[in-house]
Amino acid sequence: MLTRGGSTRILVAAFACAVGIVALTPAPTHAERTLALSAGSFSFEVDPGEEKTGEVVVINDGDEPIKVLVYSADQLVDEAGEITYNVPDRNDPEFARRPTSWVRLRMPTEAKSIGNTPYLELEPGERIPVSFVFQPPANAAPGDQNVVLFFEMFELAGDAGGAVTQVSGRIGSRLQMRVRGQHTERLSVRPFVVPAFRLGSDIPFSLTIQNTGNLDQRLSTAVILFDRNGVELTREEPLLATLVFAGNNKRLAGVLSPGRQMFGRFSVQAEVYRVDDNGVIVQEVEPLLEQRSVWLVPWWLVVALGAVVIILLGRFAGFVAGKRRKRTNASSTRAERRERRERLRQEAEGSQTEWSDSPGIPHARGVTDGEADEDHR
To answer: CA-to-CA distance for 40 and 176, rounded, in angstroms?
Structure first.
């Protein structure tokens, strides 16, 4: 027969065993699909009409089989330097003028295709090499051209419970082709916009780097705030070891924040450096420098000046009100004096009338000129 305390101990022991079994049970693992490439970029220098080849290895680094589409795309750069990728239509009349027309893929024999797009099937850990051939036309202009080889994971309809075809991620390998000939390197910063006057401490800026040459340039940019003695106060680096492609721009913007309120005239300088693939500044090339001036007025000074203006306006308003009161008082005094004179005059006239009308008092009569002459004789 079990007592109440004994049954409690058995329940506790059973609960502890259950917890131990759950802890020892391995957690379910989640399958991962991971795609990798042997190289993220290639750089070739060729003569017009010359053919060259390369190879990139596609790697399934996950623990599930994957399917990978393989195709090439042109890069399109807008005025701000943002890149989009366009898969060309080979039936487009303009296709022959695009760099993608220079590139051909050599797929392995085990490759399959969807329409005109080839794809690979890779087991976990499998590596499959994909070769490519490129040949610029004989009349190709000198300079840099870029094509991106894309490798895109996807699922066919029916592979995932009847789901439609889905894209689950893609990576690319850049193919830079430099056609030999007359090369031009030309960079400028235009425009470089900094406000001439700024309240507070934050200074917004914007600049556009223009690459009007025919070679891609890897650049880093710093925007620096200096005081009147040339001492650096703060800096921003909106561009680090980034390609600015031939014939295109790169638009940058940011805010310089010195962290304290300052007053006076300061200088803002944009510095554009050419760097190597590791981001190290190329010392042999002079940096591109542009400078602007800005006046900073701290908010505390604005508040203080506002208080002074309010006080002065208050005093001026008091002065004007005092003047008006004085004019009003003077007008009232003059009016009272006029009223008093008028009242006195009326009182005087009234008194004379009462004296003339009193009984027993002869009326006053004026003396004529004739009577005056008789009295004289």
So the answer is: 11
